[in-house]
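Question (not urgent): is this output format expected?
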Amino acid sequence: MDFFSFHGAKIDSVFIHPVVDCPFIPNSSETTSVQLQSMGGGESSKWKRGKEKKRKRRMQEHSQSAQVGRNGPVKRRKATPSEKARPTAGEESNPRTGKKATDLFEKMKARLSGGRFRWLNEQLYTTTGVEAFAKLTAEPELYEQYHEGFREQTRGWPQQPISVVTRWLNSKKKNLVVADFGCGDAKLADSVKQKVHSLDLVATKPGVIACNMADTPLASASIDVAVFCLALMGTDYGKFLQEANRVLRTPGHLWIAEVRSRFGESFEEKFLKNLLAMGFSLKSKDVSNKMFAVYILEKKDHEPMPKRLDW
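Got this back:
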């Protein structure tokens, strides 16, 4: 049986063990002459052909590896125009270059913004007016985050409550005085012909009065319309309505828009019962919008204010 024969630094033959089947692959960049030695015995021609195919495949892989090591990376064919236009994995993960990644980034940003809004919304609904005013006075950036989330959440509504109250006020006399409780960005004051006192927890622009909605600087019996446009927030929101009752003239109007999901049948019944006890009469109720309901009430003469109401 022949073993390796060396001629200088070159290898002329490789011996393949019939059991181990592990040919020695020379670590050389030069072409080698490899010959399969006769194994003798009763090897079938099929087995020999299989071994020969494996040997050639391994030698081809080794030759390609050696070529890369000596001459650098193997040159690849040029990309077609369609392949060039296709974004790479890096581009798709980069929001500045990949459209799909940009869309995903915007969706994630909206989701985070929505989550932040829901958290802030819960905080405002589960604290008193005094607590909310103190918190947002200390951290006014939370107010902007809330309203940014609010605008995003209501963007898809078929109709905005601010548009409804704007139309209603523009159908009334110009000399009416309005108080917009929880005015937000004071859009109502910019959209109607009447004088509007814009009130909210944070003053976002000139003319907005920052205060607790239960304790405004407005004089008693000084306004004709009190507006609450999705603004009855807090555990003591009943005090906001009592403040509105204080500053309203007689007869004056109370205009309220609230989300439909909040006003179940039992809640609405108690809510309206308390308003009637405060001296208001229900003039109209509009539940045609699937997102919010609108209540318009009128203040009557000389109704005694109840000492305590269960909101």
